[in-house]
């Protein structure tokens, strides 16, 4: 049953759908927005519209981009022979912060999770295989999250890619197990990248 009138309830409902925002927080944010200047509130509304209208996925790596190619794929100083496979565009930011990697990326769009119905078909695995052929990639670094799904995905990809004669490496342990790449500090992630090892598949 709605607690508030019309637009306020709509806003509370929408905010409550956001990740990590419970009903209490949704109410608090809605009433905060009601109180701030129209200018401030519209700036938020505009930022949401802009991100939806102007952001696309990079045609090469599926990172978020403002044009057909993301800033990394359009940078010709990047080493095209290396590709770092990540689950999510946010992980690219984490790896870039380490300054340890000069190659390009490939965003899978998640990790294998049979229980939730995520198989290879739901991830951009086919797109990765196409790139390996087309771009002359010789090393694939598996940078999926250090948790069950991430490890399963890395093993699956290693078995698929090893027979192609590529170097397939996995970031070294030392990252907090069960954690997300995006929360790892750059020093730890940098060391994990530097200490990457060939996967036996
Ligand atoms: Zn890209």
List the helices and strands and how they pair.
Layout: H1 6-16, H2 23-35, H3 38-54, E1 56-57, E2 64-65, E3 79-86, H4 89-98, E4 103-107, H5 125-135, E5 139-142, H6 148-161, E6 167-170, H7 186-194, E7 197-198
Helix pairs in contact: 1-2, 4-7
What does this structure look like?
The protein is 42% helix and 13% strand. The chain is built from seven helices and seven strands; from the N terminus they run H-H-H-E-E-E-H-E-H-E-H-E-H-E. The protein has helices at residues 6-16, 23-35, 38-54, 89-98, 125-135, 148-161, 186-194; strands at 56-57, 64-65, 79-86, 103-107, 139-142, 167-170, 197-198. Strands 4-3-5-6-7 form a five-stranded mixed beta sheet. A two-stranded antiparallel ribbon has the order 1-2. The termini are far apart. The relative contact order is 0.10. The mean pLDDT is 91. The structure holds zinc ion (ZN). Zinc ion is lined by residues 58, 60-61, 63, 69-70, 72-73.
């Amino acid at each position: 049953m709605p607690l508030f009138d019309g637009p306020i309830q709509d806003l509370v409902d929408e905010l409550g759908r956001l990740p990590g925002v419970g009903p209490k927080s949704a109410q608090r944010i809605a009433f905060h927005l009601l109180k701030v200047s129209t200018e401030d509130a519209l700036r938020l509304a505009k930022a949401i519209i802009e991100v939806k209208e102007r952001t696309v996925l990079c045609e090469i790596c599926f990172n978020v981009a403002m044009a057909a190619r993301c800033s990394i794929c359009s940078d010709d100083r990047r080493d095209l022979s290396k590709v770092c496979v990540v689950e999510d565009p946010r992980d690219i930011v984490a790896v870039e912060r380490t300054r340890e990697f000069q190659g390009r990326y490939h965003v899978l769009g998640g990790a294998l999770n049979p229980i939730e119905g995520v198989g290879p078909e739901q991830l951009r695995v086919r797109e990765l295989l196409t790139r390996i052929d087309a771009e002359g990639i010789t090393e694939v670094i598996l940078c999926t999250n250090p948790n069950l799904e991430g490890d399963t995905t890395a093993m699956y990809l290693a078995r698929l890619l090893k027979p192609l004669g590529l170097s397939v490496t996995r970031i070294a342990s030392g990252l907090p197990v069960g954690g997300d790449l995006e929360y790892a500090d750059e020093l730890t992630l940098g060391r994990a990248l530097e200490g990457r090892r060939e996967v036996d598949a």
